[in-house]
Amino acid sequence: MGPQEARCGVNTDDLDLYPHERPHVVYRVFDARNRLLYVGCTIEINQRRNIHLCWGNNNSETSRLLSLYGDRWETEKHPDLATARAAERKAIHDEAPLLNKQHNPKRYKRVGGKYVFIEAAS
What we know:
Residues 1-7 have low confidence and may be disordered. The strands form two sheets. This protein has a three-stranded antiparallel β-sheet with strand order 2-1-3, sandwiched between helices. The protein is built from five helices and five strands. By secondary structure, it is an alpha+beta fold. The protein has a single domain (21-117), classed as 3-Layer(aba) Sandwich (GIY-YIG endonuclease). The chain is globular, with a radius of gyration of 16 Å. Strand 4 and strand 5 (114-117) form a beta hairpin.
């Protein structure tokens, strides 16, 4: 591992690939009672976790809630962005996490350009 790789935590074998061709991760965040809070997709899980836990991402409400209540993170690797995004959308649709708004018709509907919580998923 070279100094740049050690400092950035980047697998240099993947650097010759375009970002959408590089391996991606779908992650799930659970609270202390094992309720699924959020499903996301990223190319770099440690960086994304830090963004959520440090209230990054423009101080979003989702990041704030994940920093307060996110207790356990699970990850699954995918070979590229397209595969990971498809898995993320399916997981959100099928598992109805509390904080995901897009692709989550069991919990949210779009009204006047905003997502509105409609009910708890069964």
